[in-house]
Design brief:
Elements: E1 2-8, H1 12-17, H2 19-22, E2 30-36, H3 39-46, E3 53-57, H4 61-64, E4 68-70, E5 76-78, E6 84-87, H5 93-96, E7 101-103, H6 109-117, E8 124-126, H7 132-137, E9 143-146, H8 150-153, E10 160-164, H9 165-173, E11 177-185, H10 190-209, H11 215-220, H12 227-237, H13 240-243, H14 246-260
Helix pairs in contact: 6-9
């Protein structure tokens, strides 16, 4: 059995989708060692090819180049899944990006989408995604680019949505929003990569078929998140594109990578 390192995030969608693979609940010729890190940290480490398998923001694909190749299973794409720009008071996107904007990383898909929607964007500051809501509400920054569960909780912080970049992308392209994909390092051979792709697909299907099986694993890595937000997070980001990216998904990824370049 081949041993592979697999970097993915501690977010509920990943721990839900990859639980069966991580704990050997499916038949597969590979055994993985999971490393759970924030998506921007995974993006950074991919520059050095640190993991055999890794989740990567689609926005990071161009920077990583030929070091990794995309697998068709395990991706985060869909409709209504895009990042948001939020502010303390109601304002337009143009007004929001007129000041200092907190972003979850320069390699994230969220930042790529914001750059496309607001090319006049000037000053940005990088911070962990889970710090951004507080940074906006405290006045540390003028606006924030939020991802993950923050899209469900920003109203609780008294914040306002300037734009849903997913809606913007879907109106402009008629394609799903391509957030992230699972990639195999270039030196993982074709046979192993194909086996991993099948194993990830089987893990996602197992999660759909046994939604309670991963509950403890999900909760262990999402202790500050309510059950309701966890469920919303999983329902939004784990969908049919997680089983297979699909033709529309591949077109969306190609379009975003091309536009980002």
């Amino acid at each position: 059995m081949r041993d592979l390192t697999f970097g993915y995030s501690p977010c509920p969608n990943d721990t839900f989708a990859f639980h069966a693979l991580t704990f050997g609940l499916i038949d597969t010729p590979v055994r993985i060692t999971p490393v759970l890190l924030d998506i921007e940290e995974l993006n950074r480490r991919a520059h050095h090819g640190e993991f055999d398998l890794t989740k990567l923001s689609v926005g990071a694909f161009a920077a990583v180049g030929n070091g990794y190749r995309l697998l068709r299973s395990g991706a985060a794409l869909g409709h209504g899944v895009g990042p948001l720009v939020v502010t303390r008071t109601p304002m337009t996107l143009d007004q929001a990006v007129g000041g200092r904007v907190a972003i979850p990383g320069r390699d994230t898909t969220a930042y790529r989408l914001l750059r496309l929607a607001a090319p006049q964007l000037s000053e940005v500051v990088e911070m962990r995604y889970d710090r951004i809501l507080h940074a906006v509400s405290s006045g540390e920054v003028h606006a924030g680019l939020i991802i993950h569960e923050s899209r469900f909780t920003y109203v609780d912080h008294g914040l306002h949505k300037a734009i849903d970049l997913g809606d913007w992308w879907e109106r402009d392209t008629s394609l799903p929003v391509p957030l992230a994909g699972i990639c195999a390092r270039a030196d993982v051979n074709d046979v192993t990569a194909a086996a991993v792709e099948r194993a990830i697909r089987a893990s996602v299907q197992y999660a759909f078929d046994h939604p309670e099986a991963s509950r403890d694993y999900v909760r262990a890595h999402a202790q500050e998140m309510s059950e309701t937000v966890c469920a919303q997070h999983i329902a939004l980001y784990v969908n049919e594109h997680s089983l297979d990216i699909g033709d529309d998904g591949m077109r969306a990824i190609t379009r975003l990578v091309s536009d980002a370049r």
